[in-house]
Amino acid sequence: GFEVLASASHYWPLEDVDGIQEFRDTNGDIVEGMVNKGIYVTEKKGVTFLFFGSYRNSCISNPEACGPEGVTFSFFWKTQDQQAKLLPASGGRVISSGFKICSNEGEGSVEFYTRGNAMMKWTASFSPPGPYWTHILFTWQSREGLKVYVNGTLNTTDPAGKVFYDYGDGSASVLAGSEGRAGKRWVNGAFDEFIIWERALSPREVQQYFTAAVGVQVLLSSTLPWSLMTTTTNPVLPTSAYQPIISALRQDWRSSQTARSLLGQLQNVSRSLPKESLPEHTAQSLAEAFLKAVEDFMLLSDWIDGPGTPEVLSSLIHTIDTVMAHLSQNLHGNSLTLEGSSAVADYTVVRMNPQSLNVSHYRFPSRGHSYISIPSEAFHGKAWITIVGLLYHNLHYFFHNINPEDTRIAEAAAYKGYMISASSYLISVKVEPLPQLSYNLSGSPVLSIQLSHRLTPRQYSQALNKSNRVHLYCAFLDYSNGTGVWSNEGCVRHGGDLNHSLCLCNHLTNFAILMQVVPLKV
């Protein structure tokens, strides 16, 4: 990874930051200000200039001069950290005569310009980092356009660009700071490890540098130029790439976050988790920290009962599913069971050989009156399987006043204007590879889902009113079109009463019982 850094043309370490490994010589000193050259000067207004020597008409200031090799810019960035001491390179944007990086109103973006005869702009947007260090790297080549990597993984691209005439400051050095244009609000934050390569790094090189920067520290030999060696006198133990994320998630974000921005940060976590093996204790810490951040989100009130509440809820559940699926896919070792409980949900992550299942059904959770049961015959083959189970404690309270016309439940849509509410816990089980279930719900094997009803006093009163008819639906959130929509396709309510429901389904996802109360005279 640091061999990749050694090939850079410019390097600014800026500050010594926990969790980000610097490029050091054999004495342990940071190689300050140069792989080739680089000097930073801090201004009083919170703007830091990064001087890179003679840059005019260079590939750095004018991408047209790059040739087919292209150019790469890399840095670590964090935002929304109002209480921490800001580093010398602080603010919400980085600009030069050839590019601009900024974060504003919950969105990060990179803009890249060419001048002269081909006046073009490439733009790529991404979720900005939260209060933890996030690695942002972008490459540009004339034939491939702009590529943005977040934490070592390709995040977004703009291969074609477009003609644009109002482009960048032709006289700017590289600068990072919080001074925006009039009327423009730039997010406070901090930058570290700013690097420029006068070539486009390959995806493998991007991953190698990111892994080295957050992992094992490698030393630069002062006697053999640009050759690398590891220390033998004071070895540095590897640092998990997950640790900065876990540390940031453990902060209380409510004091400085709106619900929209906090949800954006949670989504950014779900998209930016490193593709690295997770030891059991690290996986447990990540699950606990992430669900605590979800709890912080749910304690905010500015998203409740708004017009966008259903969309926010479905996005939140999808984000939780993504993080828990990452845990199951990257958990190190075999025959593991990760279990826990938080204010948000009880959860389990299991990796096992299905042939070791010596009972007729797998059940989650193993105790209680609300559960999902999967027949063992559905776990075909000899491949190892992973199971993720979540039983949410309070999310069902927020699914009320659902317009039946906004669902894929035909029976409910027939009663227009009679709103639907969740009347049970929300429960989820995901299995990889998928279990073999009978498409015919009268066949075998199928899922059995039992859910106790959690009725509010108002729901009880409506249900017991003899002038009303109560409709109970076994439903799930269908994400097939990108956003969660309640549907009952592939599910049937097989039994139950006003206190509980028994459902049969031919697929796995998030389930709940929905109630619709309709006057008998309708």
UniProtKB/TrEMBL annotation:
GO terms for molecular function: G protein-coupled receptor activity. Residues 348-521 form the GAIN-B domain. The keyword Transmembrane helix applies. It comes from the Eukaryota. GO terms for biological process: adenylate cyclase-activating G protein-coupled receptor signaling pathway. GO terms for cellular component: plasma membrane. The keyword Transmembrane helix applies. Keywords: Disulfide bond, Membrane, Transmembrane, Transmembrane helix. Residues 45-248 form the Pentraxin (PTX) domain. It is found in: Membrane. PANTHER family: ADHESION G-PROTEIN COUPLED RECEPTOR, ADHESION G-PROTEIN COUPLED RECEPTOR D1. This is AGRD1 protein. It comes from Rhabdornis inornatus. The lineage of its organism: Eukaryota, Metazoa, Chordata, Craniata, Vertebrata. The gene is Adgrd1.
